[in-house]
Amino acid sequence: MLYERVIRPLLFRMDAEAAHERAVRGLGFLGRVPGGPALLAAVAGAQAPGLRTTVFGLDFPNPVGLAAGFDKDCLLTPILPSLGFGFLELGSVTLRPQPGNPKPRLMRLPLEHALINRMGFPSAGAQAAARRLQSAGRAAVPVGVNIGLNADCPKAKAPEEYALVLRLLHPWADYFVVNVSCPNQTGLRDLQERLQLERILAALEAANSPRKPVLVKLSPDLADAQLPDLLGLIMRHADGVVAVNTTTSRTALSRDPGDIQGGLSGRPLRSAATAMIARIHRLTEGRLPIIGVGGVETGGDVLEKLRAGAGLVQLYTGLVYGGPGAVTRVLRELKALLRAGGFSSVAAAVGTEKA
Q1: How far apart, in whole angstroms, are the C-alpha atoms of residue 63 and residue 313?
Q2: How far is residue 303's CA from residue 133's CA, in Å, rounded to a whole number?
Q3: Contact 264, 114 (CB under 8 A)
Q4: In the 8-state DSSP scheme, what is residue 78?
Q5: Mean of the per-residue pLDDT values for the chain?
Q6: In this structure, are residues 45 and 328 in contact, taking their beta carbons and an 8 Å threshold?
Q7: Which DSSP symbol is given to 268?
Q8: Which domains does the chain have, with CATH numbers?
Q9: Is 0.70 surpassed by the pTM of this model?
Q10: The predicted structure's pLDDT at residue 2
């Protein structure tokens, strides 16, 4: 309640990106202070026994992770597990440093519990990310790296550049996500086309030694007709999907946000994200691991996505609106709901919602 009544109103008086940067600096400081992670864990109440699960060959202490976009430059791996996350997805990381799109580029829609961003992959680059991950050492939970593409990269060179980022970060990541679905970089979504994606995944396969899981992050705006071929390709050449990225659609908003360009995340995306997860689960007969993301704020939201077919779930916008205690609360609610639903484990709930 302290966050909702006192801290969030103060942060929301600031520009959204400036508030985010202040939060990153504060968490980074705590991560460097002796005893800082333990102190944050005590404040957040980050204890969630009984929610362990295994997906694409990796063990997770719980199924709720941090979505890409919060820790773009891999600064916070020592401290973020103290908030209760079962895994972290860092980035997007691009091969070369780039500033991203002009500011302002991150906007809140408080009445909708939503964000609109047009960040455009601001990144310190893969070499800086590698140095930081090496310096931080192994995180307390599995770490994924979301790979983005520099804005000046020609499409023909995209496979090579994605593979170079994977090579640079391979020693410090447990899994990788290839981001071909961000709506804020011109032409990036074209890489979801079958032939383009096939070349990218082939390049990643060649660079991925020893083999670590590679997932593809999909757009919620894909047409149903595009999914079967795309999923068949992913099943042959990758290990799973992240569903979904932000949307350019505004149909789920209860109010007109005006002409604000960018990708929408948060509560209005929840239903569309869950529907996409269910379609993927059905089309792949449950054989393709799914990380579900979009509009997660409660334990009920997590269970909804698990039952639709996701093995793991992520949040980011829910952290902005719920604060540092959000993950612990979500896990507590999830544990109670699993028990009430008669599910003996997280895995037992996956894919149980029948269409």
Answers
A1: 6
A2: 32
A3: yes
A4: T
A5: 95
A6: yes
A7: G
A8: 2-349 (3.20.20.70)
A9: yes
A10: 87
343-354 pLDDT, tens digit each: 999 999 999 998
Nearest to 115 by CA among 300, 245, 302, 275: 245
Cis amide prior to 244 (ω within 30 degrees): yes
Higher pLDDT, 184 or 157: 157
Distance CA(36)–CA(4), nearest Å, equals 23
Q: What are phi and psi of 134, to 5 degrees?
A: -65, -45
Over residues 38-48, mean pLDDT? 83
Amino acid making up residue 149: L
Q: Tens digits of per-residue pLDDT, 268-291? A: 999 999 999 999 999 999 999 999
Please answer whether residues 56 and 239 qualify as being in contact, where contact means their C-beta atoms are separated by less than 8 angstroms. yes
CA distance 21 to 158: 29
Give dist(CA 74, CA 145) in Å, integer.
9
Query: With contact defined as beta carbons under 8 Å apart, do 147 and 163 qualify?
Result: no
149-162 burial, b at 16+ Cβ within 10 Å, e below that, comes to: bbbebeeeebbebb
Measured from the Cβ of residue 36, the count of other Cβ atoms closer than 10 Å reads 17
Instruction: Give dist(CA 295, CA 339) in Å, integer.
Output: 23
